[in-house]
Every structure is written in structure tokens, then in C-alpha cells.
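Sequence in, structure out.
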Amino acid sequence: MAWLILFLAGILEVIWAFAMKLSQGFTRPVPAFITITAMVASFWLLALAMRSLPLGTAYSVWTGIGALGAFIIGIVALDESVHPLRLIAALLIIVGVVLMSLAPSSTH
């Protein structure tokens, strides 16, 4: 259940990042409200997931989902660059998140 909660927290991170971009520096009320609401919910779900997942794993996966999601939204919705170096960087984030989630959480 913690992994599902963490995934939802990561999706909300993507939502708040995109809404923040749309808020144009918090000058547009609706996207600003969505940003703040999604931020609070994302942090709350992250905190719930951290009850049973290690800090490093939970935080790395959460930020990885957010980074990759924002990268994809930027390309799809905001016409951002699909340069090969950006794609390689995204692939490295995926590899890092997968390895972090597969690594043992304790040395004991």
C-alpha cells in the first residue's frame, strides 16, 4: 500500500509542477490554487508512505516520478525540447529510481 501511496504522491507532484508553470508566478488564481492544493496533498501522501518506506527510497522515487512526469508534460503540453541529451538524462533518472527501489532498505 505504501508504494501505491508514494506513486499517487509522485503524480500529484507532477500536477503541482505543471500548475505552477501555468500560474505564471502565482499571478493566475486557479492554477495557483491547484499548485498549493496538489503540493499539500503530495507532501501528505509522501509522509504517509514514509511511515513504512525508507527515507532515501521514498524521497528518491517521489522526486523521480515528479522529474520524469514534469519532463514528459513539458514535451507533450509545453512543446519543450526532445534533445537526445535530455532523453539520456531522463533515462538515467529512471535507472536511478528503479535501482533505489530495488536496493535493500536495511543492512541488517
